[in-house]
Specification:
The protein is of the alpha+beta class and about 325 residues long. It is built from seven helices and 15 strands. It folds into two domains: about 130 residues, Heat Shock Protein 90; about 190 residues, PPM-type phosphatase domain (Phosphatase 2c, domain 1). β2 and β3 form a beta hairpin. α1 runs antiparallel to α2 and α5 crosses α6. It starts with a strand and ends with a strand.
Length: about 325
C-alpha cells in the first residue's frame, strides 16, 4: 500500500503522522516501532516544510513473508543542502530549530539515504522494520505508484518475480484512470502472476486475451537473465523502459496499441544486461525527459530513492504515475 501526502502548511506534518501510524498498525508494528515511525515521518515532513518550502511525503507499507516495513520518501524542490554531513549533525540548524531531525531519522531507520543539491531540492529515504527481512531475490527494487490526484484507486500496477538467475518485471497502465483503469491493470497482473515462468512475449499475448473484457492497458514486461547477461523485453503502449549502465541509457522498444483491444503485434527484443546495470520502467504519468546524469551519485543510491527523485521531477500531474527501478544485487 502506498500513500502520498502533500506538505504545504503547518497542519500537514500531523496528517502525514496520522497516515504513517495507520500503516504501522497494518504492519503490526509494536508500540516502540509505532512511536519511531511517528517521529521519523513528523521530522521528515517538517524538514520538507521548513527547509524545502513544501513538497510531498510518500509512504509505502509492504510485507515479505512474516516481516514488514514502512518506507518513507520525503521529497522537495527547495534550495537543498550545502553540506549534507553538517546537516546530519545534531544541533545544526539553518531555521532556528533544535537541529536534531535528520540525525534522529538516521539513528532510528533501518535504512537511510539522502540526495541533496543546492537549488535542486532534497530527497530522503528511510525504512523502518521490526526485524531483518531475508531477501532471496537477486534484485533490489523500488517503486512509486500513485493515482491521479483525487482518485482513490491507481490505474497503474507493477509486480516482479524472481528465481535463481532470472527476474521478470511487469508494469501495466490501465487506459485512463480511476476504477476502470485499475480493473485492467489488476487483471494484467493476475495473468502475470499465473504465467510468470513464460517468456515476455507469451505473457503479453495471454494478457491481451484476458483484457478484452476491460478498457485495456499499456503493458510492458522485462525478463533479465543474470547468467546470460541479457534482457528480453516486450511491450505495447506507452510504457517507457530503459537500461542504464556505464553512464549510458539504452531505451527499449514498445509497439503502439492497447493491450486487450488494438495491439496488432507482439514482438520481443533482446538487449545486453551489463553488470551494475539499472532497469527503469515508468508509465506515461511520468515525462520521458528525466536524466539521472543530472544527479551525481544518485545511481548508487537505493532504487526507492531513485524512483522518488524521478517521480518528483518528471511527473506530469495529469494521470496515474508509476516509476519502477531495479538493480541487481552485487556479490559481497
Amino acid at each position: 500500500m502506498q500513500r502520498a501526502i502533500r506538505i504545504a502548511d503547518e497542519s500537514e506534518p500531523s496528517e502525514a503522522r496520522r497516515v504513517a501510524l495507520g500503516l504501522a498498525d497494518r504492519l503490526h508494528f509494536n508500540d516502540t516501532r509505532r512511536g519511531e515511525a511517528a517521529i521519523v515521518v513528523t521530522e521528515a515532513a517538517r524538514n520538507v516544510l521548513l527547509h524545502g518550502h513544501g513538497g510531498e511525503i510518500v509512504l509505502t507499507a509492504w510485507t515479505n513473508g512474516d516481516a514488514g516495513a514502512l518506507d518513507i520518501l520525503a521529497l522537495d524542490k527547495g534550495p537543498g543542502m550545502k553540506d549534507l554531513s553538517q546537516c546530519l549533525r545534531d544541533g545544526y540548524s539553518t531555521t532556528g530549530t533544535p537541529g536534531t531531525g535528520l540525525g534522529a531519522i538516521s539513528r532510528i531507520a533501518s535504512l537511510f539515504e539522502v540526495q541533496s543539491f543546492e537549488q535542486a531540492g532534497t530527497a530522503l529515504f528511510a525504512r523502518l522494520q521490526e526485524k531483518p527481512t531475508q531477501f532471496h531475490a537477486h534484485f533490489v527494487t523500488g517503486a512509486v505508484c500513485l493515482p491521479f490526484p483525487g482518485e482513490p484507486e491507481c490505474g497503474d500496477a507493477w509486480a516482479a518475480r524472481h528465481r535463481p538467475g532470472r527476474s521478470i518485471f511487469i508494469l501495466a497502465d490501465g487506459l485512463g484512470h480511476g476504477a476502470g483503469a485499475a480493473e485492467a491493470a489488476t487483471e494484467a497482473l493476475r495473468i502475470f502472476e499465473e504465467r510468470s515462468d513464460e517468456t515476455p512475449h507469451q505473457i503479453l499475448a495471454r494478457i491481451h486475451d484476458a483484457l478484452r473484457k476491460t478498457r485495456g492497458a499499456a503493458v510492458a514486461i522485462c525478463e533479465i537473465d543474470t547468467i546470460a547477461r541479457s534482457a528480453r523485453f516486450a511491450g505495447v503502449g506507452n510504457i517507457a523502459a530503459a537500461i542504464i549502465a556505464d553512464s549510458r541509457t539504452r531505451s527499449m522498444v514498445s509497439h503502439n496499441g492497447i493491450v486487450g483491444h488494438s495491439a496488432v503485434r507482439f514482438q520481443e527484443f533482446s538487449y545486453p544486461w551489463p553488470e551494475k546495470a539499472i532497469l527503469v520502467m515508468h508509465s506515461d504519468g511520468i515525462s520521458s525527459h528525466w536524466d539521472l546524469e543530472r544527479y551525481p551519485g544518485l545511481q548508487l543510491k537505493h532504487p526507492q530513492l531513485i524512483a522518488g527523485v524521478i517521480y518528483r521531477d518528471a511527473r506530469r500531474g495529469r494521470d496515474d504515475a508509476t516509476v519502477l527501478i531495479a538493480r541487481e544485487v552485487q556479490p559481497a
